[in-house]
């Protein structure tokens, strides 16, 4: 699965959880996304240490850019 597919899948799961009234915070979604990455992304992954979440668009941009550099 490429990064675009991975991010779309995780976003879809989060959206479905919201529809069932079991939503997760953006911070929790960010942690889940970062936790699910392959080891080749170890360089870019630094887990946030505070409760502030990374804006979704920024996370997506960084991960897609990193993926393109790997290729």
Task: Please summarize what this structure is.
This protein is an all-alpha fold and 71 residues long.
What is this structure's SSE topology?
Layout: H1 3-19, H2 26-35, H3 56-70
Structure report:
The protein has 71 residues and is mainly alpha-helical. The protein is 59% helix and 0% strand. It is built from three helices and no strands. It is globular. The mean pLDDT is 86.
Instruction: Note the total helix count.
Output: 3
Q: What is the molecular shape?
A: globular
> Would you list the SSEs in sequence order as H and E?
HHH
**Care to count the β-strands?**
0
Taking Cα atoms only, what radius of gyration do you get, to the nearest Å?
12 Å
Mean pLDDT over the full residue set: 86
Number of domains: 1
Distance between the termini: 14 Å
What would the keywords be for this entry?
mainly alpha, 71 residues, 0% strand, 3 helices
């Amino acid at each position: 699965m490429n990064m675009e597919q991975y991010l779309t899948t995780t976003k879809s799961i989060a959206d479905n959880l919201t529809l069932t009234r079991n939503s997760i915070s953006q911070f929790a979604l960010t942690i889940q996304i970062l936790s699910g990455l392959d080891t080749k992304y170890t360089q870019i992954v630094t887990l946030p240490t505070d409760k502030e979440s990374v804006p979704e668009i920024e996370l997506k941009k960084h991960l897609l850019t990193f993926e393109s550099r790997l290729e």
